[in-house]
Design goal:
2 strands; alpha+beta; 3 helices
Protein backbone atom coordinates (compact mmCIF):
# COMPACT_ATOMS: atom_id res chain seq x y z
CA UNK A 1 0.00 0.00 0.00
CA UNK A 2 0.98 3.59 -0.44
CA UNK A 3 1.40 6.33 2.08
CA UNK A 4 -1.60 7.49 4.09
CA UNK A 5 -2.58 11.15 4.42
CA UNK A 6 -5.06 12.06 7.11
CA UNK A 7 -6.89 15.38 7.24
CA UNK A 8 -7.73 16.17 10.84
CA UNK A 9 -9.04 18.98 12.97
CA UNK A 10 -6.47 20.58 15.29
CA UNK A 11 -8.32 19.01 18.22
CA UNK A 12 -8.25 15.52 16.68
CA UNK A 13 -4.53 15.20 16.05
CA UNK A 14 -3.40 14.07 19.49
CA UNK A 15 -6.09 11.41 19.86
CA UNK A 16 -5.82 10.04 16.31
CA UNK A 17 -2.04 10.03 15.81
CA UNK A 18 -1.26 7.20 18.32
CA UNK A 19 -3.90 4.92 16.78
CA UNK A 20 -2.61 5.49 13.26
CA UNK A 21 1.01 4.98 14.34
CA UNK A 22 0.00 1.66 15.88
CA UNK A 23 -1.68 0.54 12.64
CA UNK A 24 0.68 1.84 9.93
CA UNK A 25 3.88 2.87 11.71
CA UNK A 26 5.32 6.06 10.30
CA UNK A 27 3.77 5.56 6.84
CA UNK A 28 1.45 8.59 7.08
CA UNK A 29 1.24 12.37 7.09
CA UNK A 30 -1.29 14.65 8.74
CA UNK A 31 -2.83 17.74 7.17
CA UNK A 32 -4.75 20.08 9.44
CA UNK A 33 -8.15 21.49 8.50
CA UNK A 34 -8.47 24.45 10.92
CA UNK A 35 -12.22 24.84 10.35
CA UNK A 36 -14.72 22.25 9.05
CA UNK A 37 -15.57 23.87 5.71
CA UNK A 38 -16.50 20.74 3.78
CA UNK A 39 -15.06 17.85 1.83
CA UNK A 40 -13.41 19.85 -0.95
CA UNK A 41 -11.60 22.02 1.60
CA UNK A 42 -10.39 18.90 3.42
CA UNK A 43 -8.98 17.44 0.21
CA UNK A 44 -7.39 20.79 -0.66
CA UNK A 45 -5.57 20.78 2.71
CA UNK A 46 -3.79 17.54 1.78
CA UNK A 47 -2.67 18.62 -1.72
CA UNK A 48 0.88 19.52 -0.68
CA UNK A 49 1.45 16.05 0.79
CA UNK A 50 0.40 14.06 -2.28
CA UNK A 51 3.38 12.80 -4.28
CA UNK A 52 1.62 10.66 -6.87
CA UNK A 53 -1.01 11.19 -9.59
CA UNK A 54 -3.03 8.32 -8.08
CA UNK A 55 -5.11 9.13 -5.01
CA UNK A 56 -7.94 7.30 -3.25
CA UNK A 57 -10.04 9.48 -0.93
CA UNK A 58 -11.93 7.73 1.86
CA UNK A 59 -13.96 9.52 4.51
CA UNK A 60 -13.36 8.39 8.09
CA UNK A 61 -17.05 8.28 8.91
CA UNK A 62 -17.76 5.55 6.36
CA UNK A 63 -18.07 2.92 9.06
CA UNK A 64 -19.32 0.12 6.83
CA UNK A 65 -16.51 0.43 4.26
CA UNK A 66 -14.75 -2.93 4.04
CA UNK A 67 -11.14 -3.60 3.17
CA UNK A 68 -12.43 -5.65 0.23
CA UNK A 69 -14.21 -2.58 -1.19
CA UNK A 70 -11.12 -0.40 -0.78
CA UNK A 71 -8.94 -3.04 -2.48
CA UNK A 72 -11.43 -3.27 -5.38
CA UNK A 73 -11.33 0.52 -5.83
CA UNK A 74 -7.54 0.47 -5.86
CA UNK A 75 -7.48 -2.32 -8.46
CA UNK A 76 -9.91 -0.40 -10.68
CA UNK A 77 -7.63 2.63 -10.67
CA UNK A 78 -4.38 0.76 -11.26
Amino acid sequence: MGRYILVLSPEGVESVRPCVEQEVGENFDIAIQPEPKGMADAIFRARGLVETPFVLVVWGDQVSLSSRTVEACIRLHE
